[in-house]
Design goal:
Layout lengths: L1 E4 L5 H14 L11 H7 L5 E6 L2 E10 L9 E8 L8 H15 L4 E7 L3 H9 L3 E11 L5 E10 L6
Parallel strand pairs: 4-5
Antiparallel strand pairs: 1-2, 2-3, 3-4, 5-7, 6-7
């Protein structure tokens, strides 16, 4: 498996993996995959990665900025999705670890992930990659099936932290 920079031409395959996450009702509160232009505007231009196995894209990860306040300039939220046929093969771990390295190079000191509480495999994955639980938000969002869910807020502080 290789980790590479995500390019616009990867979007067709990336959006199929994203759609799987939406359909699971455990990965996001979104109801549909946004068009490329909308997704592109909402995510940082740096720190966009794909995982490939041969010619296939099997996962992706990217960062969105945390709020518009300049005091949060070094904080970002991770989105990560792995193809349903490729989960539990180390893909998520490799993507997160590589994204942490890329984020550090770009000056981010805190990465956060907001996970639907029932998505225990994602909580375990982020824990394994050095994230810690910093909070729980009760009944904060509804999945497309109409069910209210809590979210787990996890964060990773990099080596240079708050120096």
């Amino acid at each position: 498996m290789k980790i590479e920079k995500m390019l616009p031409e990867h979007w067709d395959k990336v959006d199929n993996i994203y759609k799987q996450g939406i359909e699971s009702n455990l990965s996001t509160f979104r109801t549909c995959v946004p068009p490329w232009n909308d997704w592109n505007k909402s995510h940082l231009q740096s720190c966009r990665l794909i995982a490939t196995e041969g010619e296939s894209i099997v996962g992706w990860a990217a960062l969105t900025p945390h709020g518009g306040n300049c005091g949060y300039k070094g904080v970002a939220e991770i989105s990560i999705y792995v193809d349903s046929s490729y989960r539990h093969n180390g893909c998520g771990t490799k993507l997160i670890k590589e994204l942490i390295l890329e984020a550090e190079k770009c000056g981010f000191w805190t990465l956060e992930s907001i996970i639907i509480a029932e998505n225990k495999p994602s909580v375990e994955l982020f824990s394994k990659c050095g994230f810690r639980i910093v909070g729980r938000r009760e009944k904060i969002g509804r999945t497309p099936d109409g069910i209210w869910h809590d979210t787990i807020v996890m964060e990773y502080r990099n080596k240079f932290g708050l120096a």
